[in-house]
Design a protein that fits this description.
With 429 residues, this protein is α+β, with helices and mostly antiparallel strands. The protein has 15 helices and 16 strands. It has an 8-stranded mixed β-sheet. A hairpin with a 7-residue loop joins strand 15 and strand 16. Helix 1 runs antiparallel to helix 5. The longest helix has 18 residues. The model has no long low-confidence stretch (mean pLDDT 90).
Length: 429
Amino acid sequence: MSKSLQAIRGMNDILPDQTPAWRYLERTFADLLDAYGYSEIRMPILEFTELFARGIGEGTDVVDKEMYTFLDRNGESLTMRPEGTAGCVRAVLEHGLSGGGQVQKLWYTGPMFRYEKPQKGRYRQFHQIGVEVFNLPGPDIDAELIILTWRLWQKLGMADAVTLQLNTLGSSEARARFREDLVAYLQERFDQLDEDSQRRMTTNPLRILDSKVESTQALLVGAPSLHDYLDEESIAHFEGLKARLDAVGLRYEINQKLVRGLDYYCRTAFEWVTDKLGAQGTVCGGGRYDGLVSQFGGKPTPGVGFAMGVERLVLLLETLGVVPGELNRPADLYVCAFGEPAELAALTLAEKLREAIPGLRLLVNAGAGSFKSQFKKADKSGAQFAMILGDDELANRVVGFKPLRGEGEQQNIAWDALPEHLAACLKQA
């Protein structure tokens, strides 16, 4: 017997009972971005591998171990996008969206792919919502992005469950000096580092700072501090950001070990974290990447952005019990029709009701069936009311109208009066 078909490990179906929470999150976010004046951009899932090698950085875990990369029929190396920023920068450059100092405030959503060990809230195909802003160099736009995410948490009812962690990575020159001294410090203690940190010594030593291994964290107690290497402009930028967050009353924690996992960040780095999801505590992260556009061959262009994981946010919504109950509300009306003439009339009436009552949730019975079987389906659907149409109702141009929840007797309602009657009943229900 052949093996039964199933999804690839770490790439999950999102089933009908789960999608309402996803749609709620995505709709809430899209409405919020519209209110802040951001525009949506949609990029391809496949890009040339070089884009991520140059953008994310060779030697990072993402590029070295986690990307889905293959050769196409022309022998060109393609990669399924592991994150959204690099593709967004490529699109901005390719279409000249940032030329002449044009300000672009963009957002996107969609699937990303990384070959990781699947665990709750962390999958090989995962979904992100991201925002990128170009040609605004000051701390004011950094603050806007962070405040925007804070507003989202408030709208979703999870503001008390997340904490903002903030850091500045300084300029590339400051980081280079810090990196040199950090490597020298750690080299003297190399044998005491965990295996991942030893590997990162030659690839991305700053990532050692946010190691989750307790023994490595103990070694870092006496390590050089990045903030001692900061240039004056970066310090002024960071102070300006903090002043704006203070002005709106947004609380934050300074975390000097927060470096983010990708090479392109500079100055501002931030994460929103929660203690409600176990080890997968980061639900949103981002920062400034002023050198990325020029790294891709464009003119120097300031950039800043963030991304949030949809799976983790939906999991947090469910964990906190703040998914609105009405997202899964049942149908308002179930239409039962008996015989082909009645079925044809039922379809016409159903469309008139949909047109007359915006947002109406109406189910028309499909597959015919006896009076008993159709009523059983109507009750199982959870609908508030049933509409009955048979030969007698057809002849008299009425429908039987019966409440399925609570008290109430069946009535005959004239076709012309049906929209007004249904609307009144729904208002009272």
